[in-house]
Specification:
heterodimer, A: 173 residues, alpha+beta, Yope Regulator, Chain: A, seven-stranded antiparallel β-sheet, two-stranded antiparallel sheet, globular, B: 653 residues, alpha/beta, Cytidine Deaminase, domain 2, Rossmann fold, seven-stranded mixed β-sheet, Atg12 activating enzyme activity (chain B), autophagy (chain B), cytoplasm (chain B)
Chain lengths: 173, 653
């Protein structure tokens, strides 16, 4: 797949957001609810998608909240996911919220490249190279940037950290 | 569809305050507001009505890190709303404020604006207020958001599920796309949407809904517009509730009741449990630097587990209690290495003060430490412990000013030296790992004995001028044929006073500075290797081990003159060793301080106990025996060459 630019990201983020909120599923004993979702513009022609999801267990009242942003990282030239997990209203380390964590994901507690506050980040050091190895899908009417963002989210988005969160949009139907 | 006497009901607004809002508030409180609890204007936003989706079933007021900024970045996907925050200074003040009185006061401000406003300016009708208290010690934020609302009771005469007026819908869509100051509420006058009330015209209005609630209750922002048009004299109205998803509906409403001067003002936000009360944001783990550092250090270490060493047990490293005997060059660097590995409990033992030569080589000390404490210089152990906490507050570090009793240095003050001995014994009990990092050979003897007697992990690092040794001590629990030696196992004499009558360069460790860094790093990594080995300190010496974290050598010797390092050396336990042999440990276990006291006073006593004296005697006898064997028979000699007699007797003597 070809790399995308900040401008392409900005132009497509609303369309991606529509696909995202309709296709996030938690496939285990939790019910996933989207509590908040918006795209915000900030200075220097940057924008980010903010979403807050809540996962409540069907059998008890335990509620896990995950806030996340999707933004375009100019240095790594790829989209990047930042998250803040909360349990009982308190920011909690990834392994403290009680969800299964993928063993291969590389995360760091670091300063959000746009919001300048502490967030957990899925490290973007390999994203560019990995996405370039994905084949282009020809002959579809789907916007190639949207396709790219959906692929990226599958590999380096929420499902990359939480294997029980599924994102399998039906782009080509 | 007719609905008799049904009253219009609303979907309450909910606030969504992103944690960054409170982080910003805490910074402003510390740097700018300080004790100022007067109002501060802030900006929130709601999602633009054209972008609402099925998840927006409640109107949501968002606040985030930009809410305190005077100007917002232009963003057509948002409707920005002005509000005010009152951040009081104490929780008592928060409690004591009469909440109803406060709401009435805020509502009064909106009411005054309503009396003068000439348009349906949403900035007037949507104002919000926050009462908050920031507990900056615990990073807890108590807050309560209010949306002052005026009550006017409207009964529903008729409700239509969908509007069939497509041209009107199109007009609304055009209007909200150009959203300026107005755009939430319109009057329909002569087929046109107007932004101001026209009382001589029929009461046809449009409210652009702020949520897509499934039960068709419009967002509670509508309340103030309805009160306003009641105030303007409308009694019967037609109201279209426009929604972007096509679920637009219309009411025909009859005004039942309203107060010209509002008596009751509502609008305090309810909690998620439906209670009228403040909310709490506990952001300790997100703002508190101590908690952030703790998390970041742990996450950093965990990176190893992702791919490079997935089986590594970080918890065992984290849980070790480590005693560092010596807080000098080796001690301070070892402590830094342990900190890097996430060790949380480090104790220093040293009896010296920081001198002017120390800070350049000893990484936990600074220049000022050389002359503080009334010009004497700080105690090394205590200062090292404090420095470690300054680097990482999550570490539990302590320093003990303690002279470790040294063999060959006779007892001069028994109560004091015995107390030191007992403190050292207790420290051994309280720790899992002991590092021997002192600057003399004899200072390591008692710690060696204690380490074997109490079966602790003991790692010893020692420096020469351009050489270093890092080794682990063997354990009595190792099988006899695999038992590894200690620092003294290669000696045939007991350690003795090496300091008296020595010059300064002989007493101090004169070394190439880098040797200490190398040895310290190796000592720490050796500990980690031991901890990852299934047999821990009982692991036998194997050069190539398939253990998950590599091999655990017995000793590493390095030479800087040729940059050579050997880690395949090992020395088995010596059964007459003065530090770790069974007779010594047995005697220590039986007699404790009395045994130690005698050893300190006279190292030949120790040589007796461990058997070295016997070895020395046997060696002496063996030498004499060898000499006798080498002697020539005098008679034979004389027979060979009489002339050589004088010369040879001189040589033989």
């Amino acid at each position: 797949m070809h790399n995308i630019t900040n401008e392409q990201f900005n132009n497509c983020i609303t369309a991606f957001n529509e696909v995202l909120v309709e296709n996030l599923i938690f496939d285990k004993e939790y019910t996933l609810t989207i509590k908040n979702n918006y795209i915000k513009k900030v200075n220097f022609d940057k924008s980010y998608l903010f979403t807050s999801i809540e996962m409540s267990k069907k059998i008890d009242s335990e509620v896990i909240r995950i806030d996340f942003t999707v933004s375009y990282h100019d240095f790594y030239q790829v989209p990047i996911l930042n998250i803040r997990p909360y349990k009982d209203g308190s920011f909690t380390a990834l392994n403290g919220i009680g969800l299964q964590i993928a063993p291969t994901v590389i995360t760091a507690l670091t300063t959000h490249h746009i919001l300048q506050k502490t967030w957990i980040e899925v490290h973007a050091c390999e994203t560019l190279e990995a996405l370039q190895t994905l084949p282009e899908i020809y002959g579809t009417t789907v916007d190639s940037v949207l396709e790219y963002l959906c692929c990226w989210f599958g590999f380096y988005g929420l499902p990359a950290i939480f294997p029980n969160i599924r994102f399998r949009p039906h782009l080509y139907m | 569809m007719s609905t008799d006497n049904k009253i219009v009901k609303f979907t309450p607004i909910q606030s969504f305050i992103e944690s960054s809002f409170f982080i910003k508030l805490s910074q402003l409180k510390l740097d700018k507001f300080k004790l100022d609890s007067s109002k501060h204007v802030i900006t929130g936003f709601i999602q633009h009505p054209k972008l609402l989706n099925r998840f927006n079933d409640m109107p949501t007021l968002n606040l985030d890190q930009d809410s305190f900024e005077p100007e917002q970045v232009e963003d057509s996907s948002k409707v920005f709303i002005k509000g005010e925050i009152y951040n009081v200074n104490t929780i008592e003040e928060f409690k004591q404020i009469d909440k109803l009185q406060q709401l009435t006061e805020w509502g009064g401000q909106i009411y005054e604006s309503m009396k003068t406003v000439t348009t349906f300016d949403y900035q007037v009708f949507n104002q919000f207020y926050i009462l908050s208290f920031s507990d900056l010690k615990k990073y807890k934020f108590y807050y309560w958001v209010a949306y002052p609302s005026f009550t006017s009771k409207w009964s529903i005469i008729e409700e239509k599920q969908q509007s069939d007026d497509l041209s009107l819908v199109k007009m609304i869509e055009e209007k909200i796309n150009q959203l300026g100051e107005n755009g939430q509420f319109f009057q329909l006058v002569d087929g046109q949407l107007v932004d101001a009330p026209e009382t001589d015209q029929p009461g046809k209005f449009v409210f652009v809904d702020t949520c897509l609630s499934k039960d068709k209750k419009p967002g509670s922002q509508l309340k103030n517009y309805l009160y306003y048009i009641a105030l303007k004299g409308f009694k019967t109205i037609e109201l279209m509730i426009y929604r972007v998803d096509g679920s637009t509906f219309s009411y025909k409403l009859q005004l039942e009741k309203y107060d010209k001067v509002p008596k009751t003002i509502t609008g305090w936000e309810r909690t998620s449990q439906g209670k009228l009360g403040p909310k709490l944001a506990d952001l300790g783990s997100l703002i508190d630097p101590n908690q952030l550092a703790a998390q970041a250090v742990e996450l950093n270490l965990k990176l190893m587990k992702w791919r490079i060493a997935p089986d590594i047990d970080l918890d065992i490293i984290k849980s070790q209690k480590v005693l560092l005997l010596g807080a000098g060059t080796l001690g301070t660097y070892v402590a830094r290495g342990l900190l890097g590995w996430g060790v949380k409990h480090v104790t220093f033992v040293d009896n010296g003060r920081i001198s002017y030569s120390n800070p350049v080589r000893q990484s936990l000390f600074q220049f000022k430490d050389c002359f503080s404490d009334s010009g004497q210089g700080q105690w090394k152990a205590q200062r090292a412990a404090k420095s470690l906490q300054e680097i990482f507050p999550g570490v539990d570090s302590k320093g003990f000013n303690l002279e470790v009793p040294m063999i060959g240095h006779p007892i001069t003050d028994e109560p004091k030296q015995r107390a030191n001995f007992e403190t050292l014994c207790q420290l051994y009990e309280d720790h899992d790992v002991i590092f021997l990092l002192m600057d003399s050979r004899e200072a390591r003897w008692l710690p060696t004995v204690l380490g074997v007697a109490k079966n602790k992990i003991v790692i010893n690092a020692a420096l020469g001028f351009d050489s270093y040794l890092v080794m682990r001590h063997g354990s009595l629990l190792q099988p006899q044929d695999q038992r590894l030696g200690c620092y003294y196992c290669n000696d045939v004499v007991a350690p003795n006073d090496s300091l008296t009558d020595r010059t300064l360069d002989q007493m101090c460790t004169v070394t190439r500075p880098g040797a200490a860094l190398i040895a310290s790093a190796l000592a720490v990594e050796m500990l980690v290797a031991i901890l990852q080995h299934p047999d821990k300190q009982l692991a036998k010496h194997v050069i190539v081990d398939n253990n998950k974290f590599g091999s655990v050598p017995h000793q590493i010797r390095g030479f800087l003159h040729n940059f050579n390092q050997q880690s395949n050396l090992h020395a088995p336990n010596y059964k007459y060793c003065s530090g770790c042999s069974e007779p010594v440990i047995n005697e220590f276990n039986t007699s404790g301080w009395e045994f130690i006291k005698q050893c300190l006073n006279d190292s030949s006593y120790l040589e007796d106990i461990c058997g070295l004296k016997q070895v020395q005697k046997e060696a002496e006898l063996a030498t004499q025996s060898l000499l006798r064997e080498l002697e020539l028979d005098t008679e034979d000699y004389e027979a060979v060459d009489v002339d050589a007699d004088d010369e040879d007797s001189e040589w033989l003597s």
